[in-house]
Amino acid sequence: MDRQNLKRILFTSVGRRVELIQSFQRASMRENIPVWIVGADMSDTAPALYFCDEAVRVPRISDESYIPALLSICREKKIELLIPTIDTDLLKLAQAKDRFLEIGTKVFISAVDKIRLCRDKRLTGDFFTSVGLLSPITVDNVSDYTGDYPCFIKPLNGSSSINAYRADDVESLKAFAEQIGEGNYIIQNYIVGTEYTIDIFCGFDGKPIFITPRIRNAVRSGEVLKTTITMDERMIMEAKRIVEGFRPVGMICAQLIRETTTGLDYFIEINPRFGGGAPLSIAAGADACGATLRMLMGEKPQYTDRAAKNGNIYSRFDQCVCVSTSEVGSHRVTSGSEVTSYINRMVREGIIKGVIFDLDDTLYSEYDYVLNGFREVAKLFDNPEETYEFMVEAFDRGEAPIDEAIKHFDKDEASYKRRCVSAYRNQTPEKLPAYAWGIELIKWLGSQDIPTGIITDGRVEGQVAKLHATGIDRLIGEDMTIITDALGGKQFRKPCDIAYRILALRMGVEPCEIIYIGNNPTKDFKGARAIGMRTLFFDNPLCIHQW
Fold it and tell me: What is the mean predicted confidence (pLDDT) over 16-37?
């Protein structure tokens, strides 16, 4: 895969947003748009970093160097789109939006004035009123509150339900107000009813693409644990009013309460970013990730009414990933000796207890296989040696060797191409020289009782022939070798994680104690990381396929 064709996206404060990262990775596969995801966080133990293609550390958001650091990263890594995931850097990013655009990076964020009104709950209420929607009566001083009890008090610019309380009487209200701090809170009348979130996804032009209302069935620390997709027509129309007045860019999440007695909708806040529960509406069919990638390709996705599957219920769960030991994630090496040295140390330190290899251009040079195929194809021409040399030269120039040979030697294209392709695919090389370091490493791992496996893509017959010609099939048994097409078709090829799960079970080793060694990080590592495996990037200088 050509590195120049990758759509490069940076997520800031990536934290625990594993679902969101995986949603973009799945969209990349569905849309056939290759993506390179960079995760930024101030902590190198943030779990989502280990599901990104690349991780970078950044200063605290409050630090003056935060935006300059992000600008430097975006410039260096040619980031096309920056996506924020938490509230605290939204205003800084909105204010610096043009600076990012100058270096070719779009920021998925709404206008500065809209970010300000979201960060100030008083202004948020005013906005809802301005577009004809109901919002709880809001005051910002205990002495001004004349409503009934219970009431609700929360920080003026808070998030994640931190310091948000129900006050049942004036004494508790005063106590909570003192705890939050004078001038830093708002008080609203307590609305009894069902809580909803409306995920609203818009393009860069502020026009809606998906609108997905859902019930907040269960919540922890402000983030939804269980949700029911509810394509309520009234809420969809109310969301369109928000869009008209707000002109969002990217995802915003509007929260409301439908009052039990009256059935009226009271809107309480807007989160102008991908919320923690946004992957739920994406999973239901409102594929904001796929639409984002298409926008990066120059498309302008149109509004899709009721894209999410009404009535779908989603329940979320926690999952662990090992981040406590050194060099978690993808380490990069450029030679076989570096691979051997790294694996030797990781085994001796007890960090890894299982090793899985990619095959092509990792344990042998695929160029040798290509040359052998050209020799088989050349036998179908009048001058085999001349044809072989011609095809090698065409391949080295980046051209299509079979097509060029057919054209150059004036053969009937349709019939010859079928025969040539068949000869190439059905080649059975007697010998392919495996890398000596790889053979020795596999033998050494065996002597240390470290289970070793292979996961490789491609036609089953062709991969079996390669394994036999390299002699690797005599070192790694059939039960520890997975050719992904043999699992049921091309849908099981990397980065699908099924093969990794199967091999981990066969090894009897926890995924966090297994390392996968491959030469193509855009394809090889996503499935491994999805189940918590480590990865080792062998940046093979002899690799014939760029990533």
Answer: 90
How many Å apart are CA 229 and CA 255, to the nearest integer? 14
Residues 364 and 435: beta-carbon distance below 8 Å: yes
CA distances from 64 to 14, 73, 196 (A): 20, 16, 37
pLDDT over 70 at 421, yes or no = yes
Record the tokens describing residue 429, joined without a space.
């090389």
pLDDT higher than 60, residue 209: yes
The model's pTM:
0.72
Domains of the chain in start order, with CATH, are 3-108 (3.40.50.20), 137-189 (3.30.1490.20), 193-315 (3.30.470.20), 330-365+433-538 (3.40.50.1000), 367-425 (no CATH)
Average pLDDT, the chain: 91
Q: Which of 48, 41, 4 is nearest to 530 (CA)?
A: 48
Average pLDDT over residues 271-293: 96
Can you give 440-507 as a three-state secondary structure string? HHHHHHHHCCCCEEEEECCCHHHHHHHHHHHCHHHCCCHHHEEEHHHHCCHHHCCCCCHHHHHHHHHH
* Three-state SS letters, 54-85: EEEECCCCCCCCHHHHHHHHHHHHCCCEEECC
Q: Examine the pLDDT at 438 and tell me if it is beyond 70.
A: yes
Q: Are 270 and 200 in contact (CB under 8 A)?
A: no
Whether the per-residue pLDDT at 62 is higher than 90: the answer is yes
> What's CA 290's distance to the chain center, in Å?
11
Which has the closest alpha carbon to 474: 533, 429, 434, 511?
A: 434
The residue among 429, 451, 433 whose CA lies nearest residue 442 is 451
- Spell out a b/e string for 505-532, using b for 16 or more CB atoms within 10 Å of the CB, else e: eebebebbbbbbbbbbbbbbbbbbbbbb
Bridge partners for 254 per DSSP: 198, 270
Q: Crossing angle for the helix pair 18-31 and 288-296, nearest 10 degrees?
A: 60
Residue 247 has pLDDT above 60, yes or no: yes
Label residue 178 exposed, middle or buried (CB < 10 Å: 0-12, 13-18, 19+): exposed
User: How far apart, in whole angstroms, are the C-alpha atoms of residue 491 and residue 496?
Assistant: 7
Are 62 and 39 in contact by the 8 Å Cβ rule? The answer is no
Please tell me the distance from the alpha carbon of residue 234 to that of residue 213, in angstroms, as a whole number. Answer: 10
